[in-house]
Structures are given as C-alpha cells and as structure tokens.
Design goal:
Blueprint: E1 14-17, H1 20-24, E2 32-37, H2 56-72, E3 73-83, H3 88-98, E4 101-110, E5 116-118, E6 121-123, E7 125-132, E8 148-151, H4 167-177, E9 183-186, H5 193-200, E10 204-209, H6 212-233
Parallel strand pairs: 1-10, 2-3, 2-9, 4-8, 9-10
Antiparallel strand pairs: 3-7, 4-7, 5-6
Length: 235
C-alpha cells in the first residue's frame, strides 16, 4: 500500500538535480523525519586508495551541508552517514560543528570479491555513523539487528556508481530510523539506493544530486521501483 503523502510544500518522492545547499535553503525548519546519505568522501576522483587532492571541494561540502541537514530535520531525527575511515576525523568534526549528536557506528562487511590492500590489511568494510538531532529522544522502529551487516555477494543490479551501497542494508536502516510513512532525505542521492529503499519500506523520500548522469539513473530506478510496487499491490 502506498504511504499517504505528508502535508508539506516539499517536493515529496522526487529526485532533484542541483546543489543541495541551494535546494535546502528554501525548505522550512523541522520538516524531515530522517537523513540517510553517502556524501562525497573519496579524496581521488577515480575512487582509488591514493589521497589525491582533486576531490577536496566535494569532500568539504559536508562542512556546509551538515548544518542545513540539521535545520531541516525534526528534533530527535536520526542521520545515518556513510563515511571513509581515511578522513573520518573530518566527517566527525563537520557533524559535531553542525550540532549533530553522535550515537554509534555501523559496519558493512563485504565477504566476496577482490579486496584492496591498504596499510597492511585487506579493505572489506564500509562504515556508517549514526547521529541524532537534539531536542527530543531519538526513535528507532526496529527490528533490532546486529551492528555488523554481512554482504555475501554483489548486488543483483549494478547502477554504474563506484560507491553503490547494498539495497538491503539501506532498507533496514530506513525501516529503523524513519517512522512509518515518514520522509527520509538524502542530499547526496547518487544512483538512488536511498530512494528505492524508501519505496520498499513504505516511506517517502527526497533525493538531491549535482551530477546529471546519476540523477537520470536514480529517476529510472525510482520509476521501476514504483511500478513494481503498483503491480504488487494490484495483483
């Protein structure tokens, strides 16, 4: 069953192409139930292990985006932020400066494929930082699971994004941190995993990305997910 749309002037269930800072500035305060996002954090444009400086502008965007993410979120809203351990202090400081309260970390363990060797170990894990906006108690809907998610194989569908996150992992996060029929926001939507997961879990979404090629992928992905949901509810 399709979730009823929240009463809002926001562009609900939409993927927007543009600068998230420009888009968010026109939004009212306290309008988003949860934030789940994977901001730019690779220091190299080609997603290599080398700390190249060519993507520093994209990485630094979190310093400006985090306060706006906080402003548009409701009190007690949860933000789950995927981030890279090589520059983890920057991400933690950006969120702290903005006023987000750190709760804990989650780990995604990839038990398949070739792993990159980095500083003496094979790199097989991704990390997600869990925050909340002060002013109310953070709410979690469950079901409660272990904080290490194990991915035994690649995603069934690849969307040509170098940092595509597992749909099942993101779907459980949204189920846990966003209330039923609530609105989950992703200011760095990429190939649209957050949006598809929100549709699966009966939540509304807004996604923003400044790269047109990924916006088109995300929009097609959303359309396919919505069509599949419609077909399922009408059989």
């Amino acid at each position: 069953m399709t979730a009823p749309a929240p009463k809002s002037e926001l562009p609900i269930d939409t993927i927007i192409e543009g600068d998230c800072l420009e888009v968010m500035k026109d939004w009212p305060d306290n309008c988003v139930d949860a934030v789940v996002t994977d901001p730019p954090f690779k220091l190299g444009q080609e997603y290599s292990s080398n700390p190249d400086p060519d993507n520093l502008l994209a990485v630094s965007l979190l310093l400006l985006a985090a306060p706006e993410m906080l402003r548009v979120s409701k009190a007690g809203a949860v933000c789950v932020l995927f981030y890279d351990t090589r520059i983890l202090p920057f991400g933690v400081e950006a969120m702290r400066r903005a006023g987000w309260i750190y709760l804990r970390g989650l780990t995604l363990y990839r038990r398949w494929g070739r792993a990159q060797r980095l500083a003496g170990w094979m790199s097989t894990s991704d990390f997600a930082l869990v925050y909340t906006k002060p002013g109310a108690k953070a709410r979690f809907n469950g079901p409660c699971r272990h904080d290490v998610y194990v991915k035994a194989g690649p995603e069934e569908k690849s969307f040509a994004h170098p940092a595509q996150k597992p749909l099942e992992f993101v779907a459980h996060i949204i189920e846990n941190v966003c209330p039923a029929h609530g609105l989950v926001f992703d200011p760095f939507i990429g190939s649209g995993t957050t949006a598809e997961a929100a549709i699966i879990e009966g939540r509304h979404f807004i996604g923003i990305d400044n790269q047109g090629k990924y916006v088109e992928i995300a929009r097609r992905r959303v359309a396919d997910a919505q069509n599949a949901l419609f077909a399922e509810t009408n059989t």
